[in-house]
Amino acid sequence: MTTKAELTKLYNKGKKRKLLAIFSVFIAIIIVVLISISFGAGSPRLPEALQVIISRTFPFLNLDPGSPLAQTIIWDIRFPRIVMALIAGAGLAAAGVTMQGVLRNPLVSSYVLGISSAAGFGAALAIVFGIGVVSFVGGYLVIGNAFIFCLLAMVIVYSIARLRGMSSETVILAGVAVGFLFSALLSLIQYISPDNNAVTAIVFWLLGGLYTATWEKILICLPIVSVTMILMMTQSWNINIMSMGEDVATSLGVNSKRVLTVNMLLETIATASIIAFTGIIGFVDLIAPHIARMLLGSDHRYLIPCSIGMGALMLLASDTVARLIIMPTELPVGILTSLLGVPFFIYLLVSKRRRSFG
Amino acid sequence: MPPSILSVKSYGENDYAPNVEALITLDPDVIFASSMLPYNPTAYQQLKNAGIPVYIIDTTTPEPTNPSKLTKDELYALSPPIDFTCGLMQNFTKIVGHQTEVDSYVKWAQNYNKIVKDRIYALTPSQQVKTYLEWYGYGRTFVTASVYQAGGINIAENQTVYSPTLSTEFIVEQNPSAIIVLIASPSHNINDFIAARNDVLNRTSLQNVDAVKYGRVYVCDFYARSGVRCVIGYLYWAKWLQPSLFSDIDPAIVNQELNQKFFGTAIAGTFAYP
Known about the structure:
The complex is a heterodimer of chains A (358) and B (274).
Chain A: H1 4-38, H2 46-57, H3 68-103, H4 115-129, H5 141-163, H6 168-192, H7 196-207, H8 215-234, H9 236-242, H10 246-251, H11 256-278, H12 284-296, H13 300-324, H14 333-351
Helix pairs in contact in A: 1-2, 1-13, 2-3, 3-8, 3-9, 3-11, 3-12, 3-13, 4-5, 4-6, 4-7, 4-11, 5-6, 5-11, 8-11, 12-13, 12-14, 13-14
Chain B: H1 3-6, H2 20-26, E1 31-34, H3 41-49, E2 54-57, H4 72-77, H5 81-96, H6 99-121, E3 129-135, H7 146-149, E4 152-154, H8 168-174, E5 178-183, H9 190-201, H10 210-213, E6 217-221, H11 230-241, H12 251-263, E7 272-273
Parallel strand pairs in B: 1-2, 3-4, 3-5, 5-6
Antiparallel strand pairs in B: 6-7
């Protein structure tokens, strides 16, 4: 018979192990950031990079900011790209892990819920026809359209699901249907486009990438993603309870429909605000939560922060390799997220160190 | 495009996806198709089975795989788009005739070809202008001899990938003196060109690049780089990269000359900017 003291000891041991895993992921992020900031097609390396970053971040120190070339390469190109990779990876993974948890389905991602297809359709409308949903976006026509259509997709999914009682199955099926609808509309636009080059531009947008990162975009994206991630973390208890099933959740006083609605909204806002700026970056929101889950189990109090770290690490590492592998030519980051993430994922899957879900 | 061509009805999405049924019904004497058609063997075979001669032509100007390893003479021996287009047209005449018209065009085009070649060939390497060629934005470029033939040095010359996406860091460090942006504007609307130019001029990361600092960012339509109008693109590129050598030539006027001489009409629209 296990005593309470033994159970507490066991719990604390597990807690320490989980915190250590999360800590390790964030240490790995720091290492990859240092590697990423040190190398690129431009000549500045770590010392110059740190000099630029410190002098520009803390201007009151009056440090030498380095050469104009180093400032341009580090401050305008390399560093914002790294920051955007961290934000995008973290936000996508957070969205993935919460929706997988709330919907109790390991295959849920922005693709499955129709968000990516809707973003692609919105971007294509802007690229081919110059049509924007809102006129004030101006130079942000493609970004604005992608964002609005993400939200529109989720409104449609939500409306359909509400008609059938907001069950997780209905949400997923509605998401798949909406995804196919927007995919079809996207294909239609590509087919009827009078301009083959616009079609190519759509393909490039759909491939996604972090090369367009600027501080201006980060200043828009960062607050939205940060707030949504914090709100997602506050939902961790509810998601833990939801993962036991809607009946159990209801019996424990959790309003499962409200939790589902809140998380759908948070997930959509986070994902939309990322892919509107980066194009569609797939796989991270699907795999990063699984890797985190294999490392430390299904307790969302730890799983969400670990997934956030894992997503950031995965996307930054992928983008760094994509930048460096045949520099100065760059590979699309989506190729690398799969090439690097899949072997690691399969390794964890085969080694079966933990149950992957539930 | 002249109005007579714009009014021609289209049968199919492109060469890869022709409307075979409609084409067979039209019963043409011959079909000219680009090299995309054989990638759709079903359609290709159906057209051939219908007894229609199908003539496949590669409309893409051949490009060297690694121009940086070629000598100056080898580079200039390569066919620029004008030579390639003239060759294509001569081949067409064997099937559709119109030899006189084609001879007239070839003579006219080769005159400009020679003017550009003679002036550019005399340049020393230090006089060549470091150039970044962009299409579809953010580092996407391609390796082409056309930059050399217009008096420039392509910063992507050492890339082994034909159509690489260059790191912005690399572009900044290379500090090109000129940037040529290729766009496709089916309507040839000047606003498309202005927007493409402003997109490059306003990129934060390129603000210290000489081409942006000194406003040497130029936009060229794909339609001015190939086909009958390739002479115009060639002249614009040469004038942009080596303005002092071509102060006596105004490509816009040459474009009007082309329209009147070979299409018999004035054609509105922008093909290059500024």
